[in-house]
Write a structure and sequence with these properties.
Layout (H helix, E strand, L loop, with lengths): L4 E3 L8 E3 L10 E4 L2 E4 L11 H18 L5 H12 L3 E2 L3 E3 L2 E7 L7 E6 L6 E4 L10 E8 L5 E8 L4 E8 L5 E10 L4 E2 L5 E6 L20 E6 L8 E5 L6 E7 L5 E8 L5 E7 L8 E4 L6 E7 L2 E6 L7 E6 L9 E4 L5 E8 L2 E8 L2 E8 L4 E4 L7 E4 L8 E8 L2 E9 L4 E6 L10 E9 L5 E9 L10 E4 L14 H8 L3 E5 L9 H5 L7 H16 L8 E6 L1 H12 L6 E5 L18 H4 L6 H10 L13 E7 L8 H13 L7 E6 L10 H19 L2
Parallel strand pairs: 36-37, 36-38, 38-39, 39-40, 40-41
Antiparallel strand pairs: 1-2, 3-4, 5-7, 6-7, 7-8, 8-9, 10-11, 11-12, 12-13, 14-15, 15-16, 16-17, 18-19, 19-20, 20-21, 22-23, 23-24, 24-25, 26-27, 27-28, 28-29, 30-31, 31-32, 32-33, 34-35, 35-37
Helix pairs in contact: 2-3, 2-10, 5-6
């Protein structure tokens, strides 16, 4: 399994011919509604096997031997370190008289959590995850502060896993209490008003002989418990479960007044949900159905006694705000407070009895303030095209904080005075580049079926449109998640070298509300790929770039996106970077939380129609032998328990075996002690990012 590259010339554009590690094939055939499908790399699903480790090690050696010969890799590494070395802050949250926020001095592996008394008090360290492990791979994944600011529940994730452990810290002393909560996943911590305990979600602990399989085993039957401080987890009270349906996800929240606990229930990754409510003043009180049908999104905003304000998509795919009273919960008594608009209502909070509505207008933020009765007050003036987020706090607060950023502006924190409705810069980073040298424009192009799709295009000012600019096209297109303008030092590094960064908002995402999302779901998933391909064709037609100078990149669902598109239109791209992608679309529901994605993709094993649609685009099953596929780098983490790493392993082996003789390299980069990306230390993120950009630079001849 020796990995080598043989050079055919010694020029800067040397072509290397990879010798790929041999991947054993097995006789495995599955029957899907009469269609026989082979799965020769099924053995790669045993990610802890010695055979797979040998293959992964050889593949990593091959990839690194290639990247080591890319001339710009070292200069990219140096420049990215410079660009990322600036102070970064999050918007603070006030609890009692204390303000909590995270900060990174520049090159710290993990952000440090701080607190201070008063708005301008002396910062004190609350949690420094850089001290949790030598390699920086242990991260804080969740944080919840009691209303008085005295206690902090925080969750720890090891090596990027979705599994977390909850602990409780005394804010004043900086010491942890004895409390420990384990086997929690996809959960926050919702404190009781008096700080005596918190609600959290978890799955049952695997049997002792099955804990090693926790990375792979499907997670079903989410449950919500109440943990009382000072007690063992074994004494925690089971407060809610759905034994009738193992695919229901649960989440608890306590209202600001501390009177009620709300139970959020959703099926898989569907955005639609139901809500149950319980009065915490009645220890023996039963759960009451507030929203009984999961026919839309119902997101709690705030309450006033028995009146609850909710953001919903019911009869309003772009979202609206309604009021529901516990005394008359029937739908005929619901009232609309803020009606649906032409823009997608992405989020709503209530601060100082004022609704702060965060809209998406053509994939950029538009923030409008409404009185408690729904009367429009004014629109918040934002600095430029970009993304505003935050606006957290309690209903009675008289201030809130938000962050604003775009492709050339790192996140700046603003304080919004809710009495005067004026914003002021609270914290602003100092930059090591000049944003005025760059520009971002938003264009609209037509997809295959005539749909109008938005796309941001960023580059240096004065770009000559002659089709030669190396261009990176990045997208996601799924799970109702919008892609917004966002600052990235790596994008600046790319643009400094004459590159173009393009980001379309594809169907399947959340750019234009639920209708836009639904247009890219299930049997309509091909619309997402058509939107992306049309974006690539627009960039070429308008002379930004050409196929040999166009790279595409995406992660997770975006990894599926770029892999499917490279198989459908291999001649259109010069390089592909597919990160932690869902590549085996016939078995995605067999691992960890993959079953939940059936709400997005459909079920390949339960529906003949959905199987047929999925089989047509599943990356692993649409590779054709002898095709000249573009240079491809697949990346994954060896501890990814969100998108199981076998997806990437199987796709890599199959694509390497099929690539035309003498074709562009097909490589995989497997990060050790890493998961789906969350919590990855900065040092690893920089290395991974540089390798991806060096690969694209080499493939595109930058």
């Amino acid at each position: 399994m020796t990995s080598v590259f043989s050079a055919v010339s010694s020029s800067a554009e040397t072509t290397f011919k990879p010798v790929y590690p041999v991947a054993r094939e097995v006789e495995q055939v599955d029957d899907y509604f009469g269609t026989k499908v082979s799965d020769p790399y099924r053995w790669m699903e045993d990610v802890d096997s010695a055979e797979l480790k040998t293959w992964v090690d050889a593949e990593n050696e091959l990839t690194q031997s290639y990247l080591a010969r890319v001339p710009v890799r070292e200069t990219m590494q140096k420049r990215l370190m410079e660009l990322i070395n600036f102070e970064r802050y999050t918007a603070p949250a006030r609890r009692g008289s204390r303000y909590f926020y995270s900060h990174n001095s520049g090159l710290q592996n993990q952000n440090v959590l701080y607190w201070h008394e008063g708005l301008d008090g002396e910062p004190k360290v609350l949690l420094d995850p850089n001290t949790f492990s030598e390699d920086g791979t242990v991260a804080i994944s969740g944080l919840s502060i009691t209303d008085d600011g005295a206690l902090a529940a925080y969750s720890i994730a090891d090596a990027g896993s979705d599994w977390v452990k909850w602990r409780v810290r005394n804010v004043t002393t900086g010491e942890d209490l004895q409390d420990l909560v384990e086997w929690s996943k996809f959960s926050g911590a919702a404190w009781l008003k008096d700080g005596s305990g918190f609600f959290y979600s978890r799955y049952d602990q695997p049997a002792a002989d099955a804990e090693a399989e926790a990375l792979k085993t499907a997670n079903r039957f989410h449950k919500v418990y109440l943990h009382r401080l000072g007690t063992a987890q074994s004494a925690d009270e089971l407060v809610f479960e759905r034994p009738d349906d193992g695919e229901i996800n649960l989440g608890a929240m306590v209202t600001d007044d501390g009177r009620y606990v709300l139970m959020y229930q959703s099926k898989g990754t569907s955005p639609n949900n139901t809500l149950a409510v319980r009065d915490l003043r009645d220890a023996a009180g039963a759960w009451m159905e507030l929203i009984g049908s999961p026919d839309a999104v119902y997101a709690p905003i705030a309450n006033d006694e028995t009146t609850f304000w909710l953001r919903t998509t019911l009869d309003a795919p772009n979202g609206k705000v309604i009021a529901v009273n516990l005394g008359k919960p029937a739908r005929e008594h619901w009232t609309t407070v803020i009606p649906e608009s032409e823009n997608n209502l992405d989020d709503v909070s209530m601060i100082n009895d004022t609704f702060i509505a965060d809209y998406l207008a053509d994939a950029q933020s538009r923030v409008v303030l409404y009185a408690r009765d729904g009367r429009p007050m004014e629109e918040l003036v934002l600095p430029a095209i970009g993304t505003a987020g935050g606006f957290g706090g309690l209903r009675t607060d008289t201030e809130t904080f938000y962050q604003f950023s775009n492709f050339t502006m790192p996140s700046t924190v603003y304080r919004l005075d809710m009495k005067t409705l004026t914003s002021a810069v609270y914290r602003q980073p100092k930059l090591l580049f000049d944003p005025k040298l760059y520009e971002t424009t938003q264009v609209f192009y037509t997809s295959k079926d005539g749909t109008r799709v938005p796309m941001f295009v960023s580059h240096k000012k004065g770009l000559t449109l002659d089709g030669t600019a190396p261009t990176l096209l990045y997208a996601y297109g799924g799970f109702n998640i919008p892609l917004m303008p966002e600052f990235s030092p790596s994008h600046v590094m790319w643009m400094e070298r004459g590159g173009v960064y393009a980001q379309p908002g594809l169907r399947g995402g959340g750019e234009y509300g639920e209708a836009w999302h639904e247009a890219g779901v299930g049997v309509k998933k091909q619309n997402v790929f058509d939107d992306f391909i049309a974006g690539a064709e627009w960039l070429i037609a308008h002379k930004y770039t050409s196929p040999g100078r166009l790279a595409i990149s995406g992660g997770s669902n975006g990894g599926l996106l770029v892999a499917a598109c490279e198989l459908q239109r291999p001649e259109l791209f010069g390089a592909v970077v597919a990160a932690v992608g869902v590549m085996d679309m016939l078995r995605f529901d067999q691992f960890t939380i993959g079953w939940a994605w059936k709400a997005e993709y459909g079920s390949p094993s339960e529906s003949a129609e959905e199987f047929a649609a999925i089989y047509k685009y599943s990356p692993l099953h649409n590779i054709r032998a002898g095709v000249a596929y573009p240079a491809t780098l697949i990346t994954t983490g060896d501890h990814d328990d969100r998108v199981y790493p076998a997806h990437s392993f199987k796709y890599t082996a199959a694509l390497q075996a099929a690539q035309v003789q003498g074709g562009s390299p097909v490589l995989i980069r497997v990060e050790t002690r890493a998961g789906h990306g969350a919590g990855m230390p900065l040092s690893k993120r920089i290395e991974a990012t540089v390798d991806q950009y060096a690969f694209m630079a080499s493939a595109l001849g930058v």
